[in-house]
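Appendix B, record 7
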Amino acid sequence: MGAEAGKTYLQKLKAQNIAKTTASNRQVLDLTIAGEYPLALQIFNHHAFISKSAGAPVDWQPHEPVTATIQTIAAGKNSAHPHAAMLLLDFAMSERGQKVFQQSNYLPSHPKVPAKQVDLKPGNGRFKRAYYINPDAQYDKGNDWVDYFNNIFVK
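Structure tokens (predicted):
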């Protein structure tokens, strides 16, 4: 979206008197399902799918540009059992391990393992692509955006 368009977007959100919370994405969705909020912004689509599958009156709608988080996995530097940690990592990233994520309604990252609900991943109906924030940019500019957001919504 870019810095200027992003700031304009946040200014327009502020004008709508939206609620700001420090709750997790999952908690915000649960509060929305419970009727505390009329809608939730920036939730994880697979959480909405999990809740909807359990009968909750909820669905998700992508808002372009659709942002996505980069998930990481690593073994601890001083792991007590480094070889076991490496085996766990190998399994978690394998096709078989990613099917465990799939069956739990989470989004698998392995290219051969689709999401259980295929439109949760880009290119399968609801949105064309996901925009990932580069970790270097997040590290370099993340606090600037947090400060900007807080200056707008917390004051």
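Remarks on this record: The two ends are 25 Å apart (CA to CA). Residues 3-153 form one domain.
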